[in-house]
Amino acid sequence: MANPNEPAPASRVTIQEVADAAKVSTATVSRVLNTPDAVRPELLQRVQEAMRELGYRVNRSARGLRATRSVQRVGFLFSSIQNPFFTDVLGGAERVLLAQQIAIVVGNAQNNLTYEQQYLELMFEEEVSGIIVNFVSSSAKHYYDFAERGVPFVAIDECPTGFVADSVVTNGRDATRKATVHLLEQGHCTFGFLGGPPFYWTAREREAGVVETLRLAGIPDEAIFVENGDYLIEGAYAAANRLLDRVSFPVAVVTCNNSATIALLQAISERHLRIPQDVAVVGFDEMAWTSAFNPALSVINQHPYHIGAVAAELLLSRMRNPERPIQQVMLEPELIVRSSSLRPE
Fold first, then answer.
1. How confident is the model at residue 17 (pLDDT cuts 50, 70, 90)?
2. Domain end call among 69, 98, 116
3. pLDDT tens-digit profile of 37-84?
């Protein structure tokens, strides 16, 4: 039993803190720890001085475990486990990686930048061979800072404009365009889009697919209603209520992701509105229950399992050949039409 009169031990200094103090990358610190003869003398001195000043201590037990571990590992870091899209992506990546005897270290950032950074540091310290990542941040600088670590990675679902790296995304603009064309064909005159935070590329693309299609079809702006949530159910629910407060019925609504779909359905139910008579719905993302919902929901299916498999193959390719050209993969989603968006008989 610990002595309550003894002071609590200080938190362990991380490799990242040493790297920041020495103004080098974590990869350089790792080389100092493992292969110091391969490090330039001036860098070796800077890192060793930073270690002394910070009181850095090597975790011998962890290093011993790594030295004896035969299974290669990669990281999978996603923004929120609340979103089943990412667990399905993980399933696809897992199938590919396990076939190569590679284990996955999973991190859930809970849409929190601090948690995200902590998970990244843990993955770097565990010396994962690569990372599949969906960042909380949409900042290109955040992506560049991460890329400078030198660990192979593949970005999924989101990649900032102007940032070039291995990535797997969905053609969200074309997906919502197809959904909007379908709703126009059903004879709707009033339209809504329940979107996500505009600072995300994915949110902007999905909104553009709806709005541009409606304008090209001659729908006036006063018949187009857009409300943005935060990619989580709580924020999407507030946005859904704002949207339903503004529109005239009947209205046709496209959502930006599965959280927005759930939030919209809740708001519709609470107002005792009918689907599709009052609100026609096309949701973004297929879920296990959408075909069983009454009425069955029309959805845009991104096939997240396939996204995960493609991302894993891309990461393996980068790990095997670090010098190969960047590959940015854009996958085409599928529009599945069911009762929720069809004209009532």
1. confident
2. 69
3. 667 888 888 988 888 888 887 654 445 445 445 568 999 999 888 788
Give yes or no for a contact between 95 and 65, defined as CB atoms under 8 angstroms apart. no
Task: Give the structural domain span for 294.
Answer: 172-303+334-341
The reply to whether 270 falls in a domain is: yes
Contact 331, 304 (CB under 8 A): no
Q: Write out pLDDT tens, residues 185-218.
A: 999 999 999 999 998 999 999 999 999 999 999 9
Structure-token match 């008989």, residue found: 345
Q: Quick one: pLDDT at residue 143?
A: 77
Q: What is the DSSP string of 82-138?
A: TSHHHHHHHHHHHHHHHHTTEEEEEEE-TT-HHHHHHHHHHHHHTT-S-EEE--S--
| Residue 131, pLDDT above cutoff 90 | yes
Its pTM surpasses 0.90:
no
In a domain, residue 230? The reply is yes
Task: Give the mean pLDDT of the chain.
Answer: 88
Q: Give a yes or no: residue 140 inside a domain.
A: no
User: Structurally, how many domains does the chain consist of?
Assistant: 2
CA distance 298 to 285: 10
87 within domain boundaries: no
Decide the pairing of beta strands 131-133 and 328-331. Answer: unpaired
φ/ψ of 195, rounded to 5, equals -105, -175
Q: What sections of 277-342 are H helices per DSSP?
A: 304-320
Q: Report residue 212 as tokens.
A: 């541009």
Residue 198 backbone dihedrals phi, psi, to 5 degrees: -65, -15
Q: Is 116 buried (19+), middle (13-18) or exposed (0-12) by CB count in 10 A?
A: buried
